[in-house]
Amino acid sequence: xxxxxxxxxxxxxxxxALSCLFLTTFSTGVLASTWSVHAQPARLVNGSPVLFRVxxxxxxxxxxxxxxxxxxxxxxxxxxxxxxxxAGVSMETVxxxxxxxxxxxxxxxKSPDRPLxxxxxxAVARGKYPRIEVKLSVESKFTEPTxxxxxxxxxxxxxxxxxxxxxxxxxxxxxxxxxxxxAAISDVFGSERIFNGKTSSPHLxxxxxxxxxxxxxxxxxGTVLLARPLYFEGNFVVIDHGQGLxxxxxxxxxxxxxxxxxxxxxxxxxxxxxxxRATGPHLHVAVRWQGTYLDPAALLRLQLP
Length: 305
What we know:
Radius of gyration: 26 Å
CATH superfamily of the largest domain: Glucose Permease (Domain IIA)
Shape: globular
Low-confidence stretches: 13-32
Distance between the termini: 71 Å
């Protein structure tokens, strides 16, 4: 009789344990399966901007992420009921699989009470950028500067170091980015360049073939971070769109904005020109996100909330 009682107790114990294990596994599976994470564009390459969209398994108060060593702050899109963040892949990123790590805080009074976390891996491929040797000729002061000119170069480098790595927490951009000018493209992101027979670093921007005096428009809302002449960049405007996203406009002939000024997409920043290291009048535009340069043409193609 004691043996039968022990048997019944033993069976009850294991049934309870198995039931708890099943419920835990089922709950975890349901929780993981309700996360929905997508990237735009679907194929990621080094040098590319990317928009992440996330649908969480519960109503969240906030959502943060980590992507290839960069911190992301997500915004909520009430229309689609998804969270979104703009990020990028540096030119130096080695092709492979990289995880987007997410961490959310549930809204007050909503379950679960504990932080929610989820990771999704994305493949990054090598970008196929043109490696065309474009033979250009510029003034010798840009390839063989004097000691005084070298001092000016170093001052400009320090200014860029101080300003271009800033990450402001708030997001100022809204909606898709627009082209700063309507014109043909004369040079693209990633192309190899040669100045006076000397190979320079890859071209990290997008060149618009515009005559001097063409109005240059802001690509999106933001705050003017820089509006001053630098040695290589010439008359140089930088807009801070928030969360580490900057757009840079070079070789201008005239400024129409001041540092610290808040501007809207389409507002005139200045007029195009050929100041700084330029072979002639054109507009060079660059995109920088948390210290890394991204392809401006790819940013212009993104459909953003």
